[in-house]
Amino acid sequence: MRKLGVSFILAIFMFSVFYPAIYAMENIPTNTNETIPEKEEMIEIENEEEIKTEEKTTQEETENIVFPENRVEKEEITENQIENVISNTTQELEMTPEEDVSEIEETVSNEEMKTVIENPTGAICIDSPIENTMYTNPDNVLLTLSGWAVSDDEKSVVKLYVNGTYWQEIKREVMRNDVNAVYPQYANTTEKAGYRFVIDVSTFPEGRHEIKLEQVSRYGKVINTETVRINVKQKQYTGAICIDSPIENTMYTNPDNVLLTLSGWAVSDDEKSVVKLYVNGTYWQEIKREVMRNDVNAVYPQYANTTEKAGYRFVFDVSTFPEGRHEIKLEQVSRYGKVINTETVRINVKQKQYTGAICIDSPIENTMYTNPDNVLLTLSGWAVSDD
User: Of 69, 145, 168, 315, which is most buried, counting CB atoms within 10 Å of its CB?
Assistant: First the structure.
C-alpha cells in the first residue's frame, strides 16, 4: 500500500511537467515531398511560431504549480520539498488493510467493554466464617475471612465493612479453579478470584457484629454484596482470693495502733488479673502480688502457672479514720474489667480514752478583787494525764 501511494504521487508530478511538451510535439506538421519549397518555408515558420507559443505556455504552466495552500514559484521547489510531500502522503497511506481491520475490531471491542463496565455483573461469596460463629476473647480472637468474588469488570475491587464502617480493601490473590469452572464468563477478567484475610476481634466488645463485603466497579457502583454475622464474648475467668490479715472486727485504737497490715493471696486463670483495694466502698489503690505462696499453689495447682506469686502484703495508716466500723474489700478483676471474685473484712477504729488530774492552787474559792486597787489575778496550779 505504501509503495502504491509513492508511485501515484510521482506519476502525477511527472505528468504535470512533461505532458505539455509531449502535446506540442504531436501537433508539429509533417513535411511531404509534394510541398512547394516556398510553401514549406512558410509552413516551417508558422510551425516554429506555434512551437514557441506552446513552449511558452508549457513553461508558464510549469512555473505556476498550484498546491493546496498557495501557489509556489518553480525556482522555490526543491528536491527536499518534493520528498516532504511524498513522505507526508506516504504516512497517510502506510496503514495496511490488515491494520484497518484491526483498528475497526479494536473500536468494536472498546464499545463492548464500555457497555460491560457501565453495567457490570458478578458474584461474591464468604466461605468463612459461617453465620453466628462464636469468638471467645482471648482464646479465639483471630477471624479468618475467606471466599471469592468474580466480575466482568477486571478493575473491580472488594471492600470490607465491619458494623457498617469501612475497614479496608481486600486483595484477591488466591486461584479458585472451582469458581472459574462455575463462572467461566468471568475467568479471564478475575482469574484469581479468591481472598483470605485475618481480623483480630480481641478489641471487639461483647455481642453481635456484622461483617460485610462489597464488590465495587471501577466507577464506584456496587456490583453485589455478601454479609455474615458473628458473636464475640469475653472469657469467664475463675479464681480464688483470701484476706489473711486483719481478721474480722479487729480493733484499731488511735494513736496506739493505727498501722493496718493487709496480707493474703489471690489466684486466677487470667494471668493479667489485678487486685483492687476499696475502703468503705471507695477505690483506694491496686495491690501488687509479689510474695511466693507455695501453700496456695499446692491447694490451687490449676492457677500455679498464671499467678505463681499469689501473695500480697500492704500496710496503711488508719489514724485518719473516724471512730467506728470500716469495711476493707478486695476485688480480683480480669483483663476485661470483670470481677472474678471478692473478699471483705470489717475493722473498728476508736480513739484512746486518756486519764489524768488537774488542780487550781490559786486563787482560792471566792477570793475578792477590788478595782482599781487589786485587779491582778494570779492563776496557778497543776495538771497531769497519760496523754
Answer: 145
In the block, cell 496550779 appears at: 381
d(CA 329, CA 266): 13
Give the three cell numbers for residue 286.
491496686
Pairing label, strands 207-216, 194-200? unpaired
> How confident is the chain (387 residues) per 10-residue block, as mean pLDDT?
52 57 50 44 54 52 44 48 55 49 50 63 96 94 96 95 96 94 91 94 95 96 97 94 96 91 96 95 95 94 89 94 96 94 96 89 93 92 88
pTM of the model: 0.53
The partner residues of 158 in beta bridges, in order of sequence, read: 170, 215
Residues 360, 257: Cα–Cα separation, whole Å: 34
Instruction: Yes or no: say if 211 and 232 are a contact pair by the CB < 8 Å rule.
Output: no
DSSP string covering 7-18: HHHHHHHHHHHH
Q: What is the Cβ-side half-sphere exposure of residue 131, based on CA atoms within 13 angstroms?
A: 3
- Asked if 192 and 176 touch (Cβ cutoff 8 Å), the reply is yes
Q: Which amino acid is at 161?
A: Y
Closest CA to 342 of 249, 264, 247: 264
**Distance of alpha carbon 142 from the chain centroid:** 19
- How many CA atoms, within 13 angstroms, populate the side-chain half-sphere of residue 264? 24
Q: Under DSSP, is residue 225 helix (H, G, I), strand (E, B) or coil? A: strand
The string of DSSP codes covering 33-83 is: TTS-HHHHHHHHHHHHHHHHHHHHHHHHHHHEEEPSS-EEEGGG--HHHHH
Angle at 205 between CA 135 and CA 224, to 5 degrees: 70
Which spans in the chain are helix H?
2-26, 37-63, 79-93, 97-118, 177-182, 294-299
Q: How far apart are CA 135 and CA 203, in angstroms?
A: 12
Q: What is the pLDDT of residues 237-280, one digit of tens each?
A: 999 999 999 999 999 998 888 899 999 999 999 999 999 999 99
Q: What is the spatial distance between Cα 156 and Cα 370, in angstroms, rounded to a whole number?
A: 115
Which grid cell sits at 306? 498464671
Contact 151, 121 (CB under 8 A): yes
Gap between the Cα atoms of 142 and 139, Å rounded: 9
